[in-house]
What does this fold into?
Amino acid sequence: MSNYSHLKQKLQDRKDKIEARLRESDHYGLSASASFSTGELSQYDNHPADTATETYERGKDIALHEHLEQELKDLDHALEKFKNGTYGICEVTGKQIPVERLEANPTARTVVEQSSGAISEHRPVEEEVLTGFDQFNFDNRDDETQFDAEDAYQSVASFNENSMIFEDASLDKTDELVGYVEELEGFVSTGIEGYQGDENVEFQRNIHYDRYLNDK
It folds into this structure.
């Protein structure tokens, strides 16, 4: 085996730095519960936005911790190969890994095979359906009577034809008022300041107003 003593020292130094960082950060505090790290007795009564920053920071800590743990495993694997005399040997082909590659990446396990430069003709299967809308429109074809893409869109779009809430959208088939406690609330409104006198009350001439008059 070639003399890789300087690479071995480089691997050991990096391992020592990672282990020291994990000790100093107490493994990024991941052993503590989220409630402990945020100072909250419980997370159940909080809106997700209330703990968004803490959730983001904890997710970042988890990612950093996993990255260091994986790097530590790669370093241990490389140092173990020094013990059994296989460091610098490709684990797939058995060829000698170029020194330049090991200098750049001391934990490298394989050689880098040169690409032929050929461009693959393989295309994702999703492209078979992610084409233009027209191919699914059969309105102008007498030989097609199926429920096509345009029909599907029109069917879904029909749900947008309901009237607005101040007309008849808030009444169901049983004529029950939906979203109101008192009948007056269906057609009487005030500004954002609330009730400030009769002169500030506005009447909406809608189906609720007509029903209220008819009932009286």
The two ends are 102 Å apart (CA to CA). The longest helix spans residues 52-84. Residues 5-87 form one domain.
